[in-house]
Design goal:
Layout (H helix, E strand, L loop, with lengths): L6 H10 L2 H6 L5 E3 L2 E4 L11 E4 L4 E4 L5 E2 L1 H9 L3 H11 L11 H29 L5 H9 L4 H6 L3 E3 L5 H8 L4 H5 L4 E3 L5 E3 L4 E7 L5 E7 L8 E3 L15 H11 L1 E5 L2 H9 L5 E3 L7 H10 L3 E4 L5 H16 L3 E4 L8 H18 L2 E2 H13 L3 H16 L4 H15 L3 H9 L3 H11 L22 H16 L4 H6 L9 H12 L5 H9 L4 H11 L7 H31 L3 H20 L1
Parallel strand pairs: 12-13, 12-14, 14-15
Antiparallel strand pairs: 1-2, 2-3, 3-4, 4-5, 6-9, 7-8, 9-10, 10-11, 15-16
Length: 603
């Protein structure tokens, strides 16, 4: 839950927190002149391109473009919100965050969350002690040993045991003088129909669920026999949301970033089995289908490619099929590992080992290829089979919001089935407009954390002249580092000629509030919610370009001359098209000139 943190407290956190200290705990850095460099934690690389400036208190990666201040780093590295990053830094540096600026409802909610976090951690300790108890935990320890899990792995994931009986945890809460009405909100105790409470987890191996901030947010439990349900999870609580949580995420992040890939499995034991076989870049869903929030979390904080390792039964295949559009619409590369029939990741890796699993990874099918091959296997390639395949795939294809990607996949399907693309397109058009509306609506939702619309990339449009963008970047960098040039920028109406909207946004912000020092830089970052804008600001600040006023004025003159030269070229092209009576080209050139004029009027 986002809370309001007073600006004076944010300033205190910024002035106290040292970005070099914070990042050095997570990334190996070496001094390079006045800055520090290291391997970027946000993408796979062999040559260091990740730079931290302790003087400017910013970071920037020249490889992937990530950048920002200490808050931005924690948000991206830990996958947390701005308010959570601020609270984390405040705790680290002993800065009190008063609740006087929060509404009573907000203050109550924040207090409740912290109480639940603290209580969950106490319960994790209780369950762990029960597992280690010579008598109480004997059966559970034997069960885990029979499954092949080492004591080191059991300790790494803080596994525990809930004794058989209805009120062991209830009595523990009473001994600790914990309000049972508060305990109820953890989901660990359930109210009886008449009076009192009983334990939710009984005679089960317990798996604590820990988030990226190392808070215990919930629990999962597995029976040790054939009882049902086999798995039981905490219900939704103020601190636990299944659709935004993944089991083992903190343990998987470092390896995922090193390898650039993350494995997604369905069960607790599946995940532990992979980790025990040194495949530690694995996370697990928590009794729910994979969601768009899960995919965004993995893409931003873990890796650029995901491997789905679901069970080879019909349910596992259906789960993989449901996930296709999530990855395609998030522009995240994904593939499906198909294990031999009768095996899940747990049983497969224990029987065949790590090498066999890595071989299965090499044979993983890209998402669309997996869908197509699965449909062919089910329906065959007869005339009727092809019709069923196209019908089966029309919905997932239409859920792909990127038209170019959809077109490529239609082409692949057509070639695989030996039918005309136009026939498949005609079939897709038969889907009712109403069934497409939800996907269309979701495509227009602005992602506040990423700062983009789904499918939007950070790169400027391909049609934009690269040289123009390069000079525009130089100008905005100059405006940031040499504020004395700002009156000249305004006088010459430089921004009216900009092509890159993001650079124009930043330049306008600098004109309205010049950057003279660290506080001004902080305010500039805070002007934008979009992480893409913050990345660009960091990349501009990290370079000290155009230091002298004379150099700055020369750059502005070169920029204006370049604009005039391009406009003269366009006018010549228009005149040439008129002389040749080429109406098609003339119309296109006039449209381009009108767009330029309208763009300047808007700016």
């Amino acid at each position: 839950m986002a809370i309001h943190i007073p600006e004076d407290k944010l300033s205190e956190i910024r002035n106290t927190a040292n970005i070099l200290d914070v990042i050095s705990e997570r990334v190996v850095l070496k001094r390079a002149g006045k800055d520090h460099v290291g391997l970027c934690p946000f993408h796979s690389e062999k040559t260091p391109s990740f730079t931290v400036s302790s003087t400017k208190q910013i970071f920037h990666c020249f490889g992937c473009g990530a950048g920002g201040d200490v808050f931005s780093f924690l948000m991206k590295y830990d996958g947390i919100s701005f308010s959570e990053a601020a609270q984390s830094l405040a705790r680290r540096y002993g800065i009190d965050l008063p609740d006087r600026n929060m509404s009573p409802a907000q203050a109550k909610a924040v207090s409740l969350r912290q109480q639940l976090f603290d209580l969950n951690r106490e319960v994790m300790g209780y369950y762990t002690r029960q597992l280690m108890d010579p008598a109480a935990g004997k059966q559970a320890r034997a069960y885990l040993a029979d499954r092949g899990f080492s004591p080191e792995m059991i300790a790494r994931f803080s596994l525990g045991f809930a004794p058989d009986g209805w009120d062991h945890l209830v009595r523990f809460f009473r001994q600790q003088r914990v309000s049972l009405s508060l305990a109820e909100q953890t989901g660990l105790v359930v109210p009886r129909k008449s009076d009192g409470f009983y334990d939710r987890f009984r005679n089960r191996v317990i798996f604590p669920i820990i988030d990226m901030s190392q808070q215990v947010i919930g629990f999962g439990g597995r029976v040790m026999d054939d009882s049902r349900p086999k798995y039981l999870n905490s219900p939704e609580t103020p601190v636990y949301n299944k659709s935004r949580s993944l089991y083992g995420a903190p343990a998987a992040r470092t390896r995922a970033r090193e390898t650039g890939a993350v494995y997604i499995v369905e069960g607790y034991f599946d995940l532990m089995a992979l980790h025990q076989h040194d495949i530690s870049n694995a996370v697990a869903t928590l009794g729910t289908a994979l969601t768009a929030d899960h995919v965004q979390m993995l893409k931003r904080g873990f890796a650029q490619k995901a491997y789905l390792v679901f069970d080879s039964d019909e349910a596992g295949l259906k789960a993989a099929k449901r996930s296709v559009s999530l990855f395609l619409n998030a522009a995240m590369d994904a593939a499906v590992i198909v294990l031999p029939k009768g095996y899940d990741p747990d049983s497969f890796v224990f029987e065949f080992g790590q090498a066999a699993f890595m071989e299965a990874t090499e044979n993983a099918l890209p998402m669309i290829a997996f869908l197509v091959e699965s449909a062919i296997k089910s329906n065959g390639l007869s005339m009727e089979g092809k019709l069923r395949i196209i019908s089966e795939l029309q919905e997932p294809l239409m859920e792909i919001q990127d038209r170019l990607a959809r077109s490529i996949y239609i082409q692949y399907l057509a070639e695989r089935l030996g039918v005309r693309e136009s026939a498949i397109r005609d079939k897709l058009k038969s889907i009712k407009t109403a069934s497409r509306a939800p996907a269309s609506a979701s495509a227009s939702v602005f992602d506040r954390e990423a700062g983009v619309f789904p499918g939007q990339t950070d790169a400027p449009a391909a049609s934009m002249p690269s040289e123009m963008i390069r000079v525009e970047r130089q100008i905005v960098s100059m405006m940031l580092n040499v504020p004395e040039i700002l009156p000249e920028v305004e006088k010459r109406n430089i921004l009216a000629y900009f092509s890159d909207e993001r650079l124009c946004d930043i330049a306008r912000a600098v004109l309205s509030a010049p950057v003279y020092g660290e506080k001004d830089r902080d305010r500039l970052f805070n002007r934008f919610e979009s992480q893409a804008h913050k990345d660009m600001i960091a990349s501009l600040l990290i370079r000290d370009e155009c230091r002298s006023l004379d150099q700055c004025e020369l750059l502005l003159c070169q920029f204006i001359n370049g604009i005039e030269k391009r406009e003269n070229t366009l006018l010549c092209q228009i005149q040439s098209a008129q002389e040749k009576n080429d109406d098609t080209l003339l119309f296109e050139l006039l449209r381009k000139k009108q767009e330029q004029s309208e763009g300047r009027l808007r700016k």
